[in-house]
Design brief:
Layout: E1 5-9, H1 13-25, E2 29-33, H2 36-42, E3 50-53, H3 62-71, E4 78-82, H4 87-95, E5 100-103, H5 108-140, H6 144-154, H7 159-166, H8 170-183, H9 189-198
Parallel strand pairs: 1-2, 1-3, 3-4, 4-5
Helix pairs in contact: 6-8, 6-9, 7-8
Length: 212
Amino acid sequence: MDTTPIHIVDDDKSVRAGLARLIKSAGLRPCVYESAEEFLNGVDAAEPACLLLDIRMPGLNGLEVQERLNSNGLNMPIIFITGHGTVPMSVEAMKEGAWDFIEKPFDDDVLLEAIQSAVAKASAEVDERDDLRRLRGLLHSLTPREFEIFRHVVSGMLNKQIAFKLEISEKTVKTHRGRVMEKMQTRALADLVRIAAKLEIPLPSKEWLALD
């Protein structure tokens, strides 16, 4: 069974039960809530998940739940399921990042396909966040000088150009460059460039260069 939680928020008990059975039949893990407030108080934002959300409910409605999640930076893929949807509602939901908008009665296979793709997206986003956290940790292990060398290396400068710019020997640049590669757990310049782009590290200007 896939342990990724599929959150079901619907004030209709029979709908919750039906969706839970469908999700279990697909080898997924349903988590049911009878209100938006119960869901918001119990959800674990750290794990990948998919949200099946009714759009019309007592208390907070589906669009308000979506707004709460977005304002808190929780980019959980949302599939709206409703028997009372309108075109303006669906447009607003999709504009705010909803994964899908499905009207009742729905086709089970269509819904399950939407859930599977949403789960894949959620898992990829968690992996991406974990990778960014790991890379930031590696970056913080660099000394100020190593970070300076790192920035110049990924900008495409040669060792001799970096040495001239920083007024140090080329041998010293090579030594620091090797330590940067080791600490950042890379073997190729292309990997360092990819990391710099991913972490949005500002690169030094090369306008001053006059070396061949």
